[in-house]
Amino acid sequence: MKFLAFDFGASSGRAMLAVLENGKLTLEEKHRFANEPVTVNGGFYWDVLRLFHEIKQGILKCVNSGDADIDAIGIDTWGVDYGYLDKNGELLGNPRHYRDTRTNGMFEKAFEIVPKDEIFKNTAIAFNLFNSLYQLLSERLNDSPLLKEAKTLLFMPDLFNYFLTGVKKTEYTVASTSQMFDSVNHKWAYGMLDKMQIPTDILTDVIYPGEVIGRLKPELSEELGIGAVPVVSVASHDTGSAVASVPVTDTKDFVYISSGTWSLMGVELDKPIISKQAMDYNFTNEGGVNKTIRFLKNIMGLWLVQECKRQWEREGEALSFAELESQANAATPFASFIDPDDAAFLAPGNMPKRICEYCKKTGQKVPETKGGIVRCIAESLAFKYRYTIEGIEQVTSKKYDSVHIVGGGIKDKMLCRFTANATNRRVEAGPVEATSIGNVVVQAMAMGAIKDLDEARAVVKASFPIETYVPQDAEAWNDAYVKFKKVCNIK
Fold first, then answer.
1. Of the candidates 449, 133, 442, 464, which has an alpha carbon nearest to the alpha carbon of residue 292?
2. How far is CA 279 from the centre of its chain?
3. Are 284 and 240 in contact (CB under 8 A)?
4. What's the pLDDT at 250?
5. 390 neighbors 481 (Cβ within 8 angstroms)
6. Reading across the β-sheet that carries 263-269, which strands appear in turn?
7. pLDDT category, 290, cuts 50, 70, 90?
8. Of 147-151, 252-256, 308-312, 452-456, where does mean pLDDT reach its minimum?
9. CB of 8 within 8 A of CB of 51?
10. Catalytic site residues?
11. What pTM was estimated for this model as a whole?
12. What are the two backbone dihedrals, phi and then psi, of residue 28, each rounded to the nearest 5 degrees?
């Protein structure tokens, strides 16, 4: 069977054609495109119509290469962001980017209306300024004309699914990222939203991974020269798809990192943990395939290196990631650290300057080379992973002896090695195309080609290579971890 997965990241997207045959998957990239947000009049937006055009190009490339016999299509994107439809089903404006600054100050406004612990009890979601809840509260407080006109709110993958099928549904895993959904009772947190005077009549029914949303609209089938292909509700939050692909077949207890622009680190649970300890650690309980819970922490991730690379390119020095990694490997170990999740590193801008300013402010040696900056990032990320896994073990009262890293970040072999060293745990890295693969296996489950999630993970394990990293130099990394926590004021 053939499945077409559209995977949208924060900076690029791709259409991946997968063939499932004899218990193994093969992947072919059919189309890749930039996902470049646009700044206009101080606002930061997604170019949503251009992105939908790229979806159509991905389908066309399949048709023109002799692969029109697709059995299903699935779409995953980042979380929290959304678009509005008017009473006629027309798009109202371009969706805002989660890094848009309109949510600044919204924590304080929200907690004045609904106490922080009540929000966590209602939603079980960690507190991030980019969460949909604070975006909507900002619009309500600023008297947004779009919010007044809106009849339907759809998150980004749901919006694309609507463009393809005409069906307005909200997929569970992406709804769970919003901090507006009650993952215990599987419904919108109506009472909390009413207190914040956020309209709930614009929210749609929730659909779960593995259900068929609808089929391509007739006019699209005609335009693209393809049949009425089913569009499947996959785990449409990209991390949900990535976790579905983790090739673990011998245990239910495993730690994962979905590594890319963000590092999403956590465990898979049957139900959310809504304890004060979980809230204090700022853990989140997002939805997964089969109504599982992704108990995890958002860590800034390779955004830090990507933004450094962009700044150096603006300055006329274009270096590949491989060249930066090589320079970092040659730099002095444990010279300086940052807290990757410090608010100073969230917005786009001159990241090398911000990192140097952080090191100066905290009384450390300021990195003097590109390699020194990249090594500072990599070591700091690895130590943040250790801090996170220690928190997971405290909250869940379980011990984990290995870490499974999936996604494009595993191409950074230095970071994988550092992760093994810092956490003092074996690291299993792979597959690279985790999100697309997770997207595909849920499509296959919907079409009856794969029985369940256990079988899906066995198929992934049989289909793609895994690289193992064994921890080294434990004493040196333990000593440096103490320094990292002191510098970052982490207890």
1. 442
2. 20
3. no
4. 80
5. no
6. 284-287, 293-299, 263-269, 255-259, 402-406, 426-429, 467-469
7. very high
8. 252-256
9. yes
10. 238
11. 0.93
12. -135, 125
